[in-house]
């Protein structure tokens, strides 16, 4: 019966080593996934900033164009009134 104790201890040690190696592998995989997720978050933030700037520029361009259109329509109305009154 004493012969089986070292074998049993070896089996336990081997089982613990396998469990530890498996845990380390899972931890490394989780770290890689976290790193990848953080990279995607950073890219998404950069894209959001770029799109926000683009949106602001387009909004500004729209407001400018609308203002120019209003002025052009007013000028057109004035010229049409002048033309019809002559």
- Main β-sheet description: none
The assigned structural class equals mainly alpha
Distance between the termini: 125 Å
Task: Give the strand tally.
Answer: 0
Q: What are the secondary-structure elements, in order, as H or E?
A: H
User: Which band does the percent of strand residues land in?
Assistant: under 5%
Number of helices: 1
Give the fraction of residues assigned to helices: over 70%
Shape: rod-shaped
Which stretches are low in confidence, meaning pLDDT under 50 for 5 or more residues running?
Answer: none
Q: What is the residue-mean pLDDT, rounded to a whole number?
A: 93
- Indicate the radius of gyration in whole angstroms: 37 Å
Structural features, described:
With 86 residues, the chain is mainly α. The protein starts with a helix and ends with a helix. The mean pLDDT is 93. It is built from one helix and no strands.
Descriptive key words:
mainly alpha, 95% helix, 0% strand, 86 residues, 1 helix, rod-shaped
Outline of the structure:
By secondary structure, the protein is an all-alpha fold.
Give the arrangement of secondary structure elements:
Blueprint: H1 4-85
């Amino acid at each position: 019966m004493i012969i089986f104790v070292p074998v049993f201890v070896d089996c336990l040690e081997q089982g613990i080593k396998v469990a530890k190696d498996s845990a380390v592998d899972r931890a490394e995989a989780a770290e890689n996934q976290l790193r990848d997720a953080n990279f995607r978050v950073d890219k998404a933030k950069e894209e959001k900033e770029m799109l926000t700037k683009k949106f602001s520029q387009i909004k500004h361009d729209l407001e400018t164009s609308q203002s120019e259109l209003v002025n052009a329509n007013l000028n057109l109305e004035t010229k049409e009134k002048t033309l019809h009154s002559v």
